[in-house]
Amino acid sequence: MQVEGVSPDGFTLPNVLKACSGVMELAMGRRVHCQIYRRGFESDVFVQNGLVAFYAKCGEIGKAWIVFDVLNDKTIVSWTSIISGYAHNGNSMEASRIFSRMRELDVKPDWIAIVSVLRAYTDVDDLGRGKSIQGLVVKLGFELEHDLLVALTSLECYDIGVGALELARWMDDYIDKSLYRNDVLVNTTLIDMYAKCGNVDCARSVFDRTPCKDVVVWSAMIVGYGLHGRGYEAIDMFSAMRRAGVKPNDVTFIGLLLACNHAGLAYEFISSMPIEVGVTVWGALLSACKIYRNVALGEYAAERVFSLEPFNAGHYVHLLIYMLRWHVEPCKEGRDFDERKG
User: Fold this and answer.
1) Which Gene Ontology BP terms does the record give (predicted)?
2) Dihedrals phi, psi of 308, to nearest 5 degrees
3) Is 289 inside a domain boundary?
4) Pick from 288, 297, 339, 293: which is nearest to 316 by CA?
């Protein structure tokens, strides 16, 4: 098209971005981003929404937020793209925060945003807020949306415990006979549901039959193994994920660390990783230390996080929650930050 001298328009560019995110072509997408500004589409909300979705799907959630934040006329597609983007990249707290802000601004959510935030509430064990969404689903007339039904059923399974596995099997059987058998979002929820009900082998069956696996599908299965301490399977799955060219996110690493039984083994795993260890991995180790109550290693992980991103206030909030839960003194970086703020 460009060789022929034909200029792309506001309909062409979002579709090219969608194609780039589908094959994780981050470099090509960035070139399209340059074209967008060169050709004056920086105020076109349709094109900008495409950029938000592109960066989020490629794991560049920080860049997705920058594009979203400067949008003057945010549509429901803008809000849904950034909420699902944060949920997709394992940042459930931020997804739920943005959803709350959207509701404060009286923006009516679509069913995709609700599915994303339901998953976020489940991931952070906020079942009360998850259940509050049920009324909103009925009010907005989304009660017949299949993806929402699966997400709500998953929430119920996580909450009721006893009998949840039978409910999960019933839902699996229903989906297997429906048009949604190959739906990525539905199957991801089923994997998560089975794992939390204690049947990781059924979760693996759903994973194996899912034809197009994105990072959320892979991460859900790795977390499933992690929840049950099946370290070898989790690490094998992570290796297969990398061979498939899928970029891991925060949830992926948390699942791996859970699978390593305790935080000491998690540190050994991080030390032997064949990729550069960034703030995502150290943050996941801090989460693992919180779960396994390893205070000393948790402080070390916190120090590494702060050394990489010293002015990110979100890390200090995370550390504060960690300290309050386990009644420990703040590490040096936490004290230094308080002094700078004071």
Assistant:
1) RNA modification
2) -85, -35
3) yes
4) 339
In a domain, 250, yes or no: no
Q: What is the 3-state secondary structure (H, E, C) of the chain?
A: CCCCCCCCCCCHHHHHHHHHHHCCCHHHHHHHHHHHHHCCCCCCHHHHHHHHHHHHHCCCHHHHHHHHHCCCCCCHHHHHHHHHHHHHCCCHHHHHHHHHHHHHCCCCCCHHHHHHHHHHHHHCCCHHHHHHHHHHHHHCCCCCCHHHHHHHHHHHHHHHCCCHHHHHHHHHHHHHCCCCCCCHHHHHHHHHHHHHHCCHHHHHHHHHHCCCCCHHHHHHHHHHHHHCCCHHHHHHHHHHHHHCCCCCCHHHHHHHHHHCCCHHHHHHHHHCCCCCCCHHHHHHHHHHHHHHCCHHHHHHHHHHHHHHCCCCHHHHHHHHHHHHHHCCCCCHHHHHHHHHHC
Token pair listed for 185: 């979002």
pTM to 2 decimal places: 0.65
Domain hosting residue 274, numbered range: 270-342
Whether the Cβ atoms of residue 305 and residue 299 lie closer than 8 Å to each other: no
In a domain, 40, yes or no: yes
Number of domains in the chain: 2
Could you tell me the CA-to-CA distances from 68 to 25, 56, 119, 174 in Å, in that order? 20, 11, 21, 37
Among the listed residues 258, 259, 261, 257, the one whose alpha carbon sits nearest the alpha carbon of residue 271: 257
**Amino acid at residue number 236:** D
Q: Rounded CA gap, 152 and 116, in Å? A: 11
* Per-residue pLDDT at 187 exceeds 70: yes
Structure tokens, 204:
């693996």
Which tokens go with 104? 């404060």
Work out the pLDDT band at 339, boundaries 50, 70, 90. very low
User: Domain end: 57, 73, 89, which one?
Assistant: 73
Does residue 151 lie in a domain region?
no
Residues 201-230 have pLDDT tens digits of 999 999 999 988 988 899 999 988 888 888
Residue at a domain's end among 54, 73, 92: 73
